[in-house]
Prior knowledge:
Layout: H1 2-14, E1 31-39, E2 45-58, E3 62-73, E4 84-91, E5 96-99, H2 100-111, E6 123-125, E7 135-136, E8 139-142, E9 146-153, E10 159-170, H3 172-178
Antiparallel strand pairs: 1-2, 1-10, 2-3, 3-4, 4-5, 5-6, 7-8, 8-9, 9-10
Amino acid sequence: MKIKVFxxxxxxxxxxxxxxxxxxxxxxxxQILYYERYDADSNKLVQTTTLDICDVEKxxxxxxxxxxxxxxxxxxxxxxxxxxxxxxxxxxNGNVWMDLGGIVKCVLQNMFPKAKxxxxxxxxxxxxxxxxxxxxSDTWYAPGIGYVRHxxxxxxxxxxxxxxxxxxxxxxxxxxxxxxxxxx
Length: 184
């Protein structure tokens, strides 16, 4: 069950592309995107999600985004074994690819450190042909950022929770590079 939840969350986090070669995914390195998920009934914080964009590698065909994803319960306790190291591939046409098998492998390695899980295949293209203002499922996107809000519903279409982008900040490494000699 936990793996399904993680995969769905990550799927929404990475999903979609845009026209004019502008992907609906972060393509600038050294950024941290911080999200908070609130229960619809009580409006209490239930989870946080941090996407840490480690680096972005560009070549003549694609952009490779290496990032970490950390889910935490409201009490700050990490979920699914801790931080997952992940990669997204953005093609010149804006298509975003992710390795679903690699996501599951990373989570399993976090949860069972002595295990040697293997993943084969699993590359998936996220939904394409989105335009500014479009939504996909119950998720809102911004070009060059990714998802900015995601609502979860039960089978009766009753709102369960909403996850909202709260902040985008420079990572500590990029802050140090911008402010040499400071103690940040």
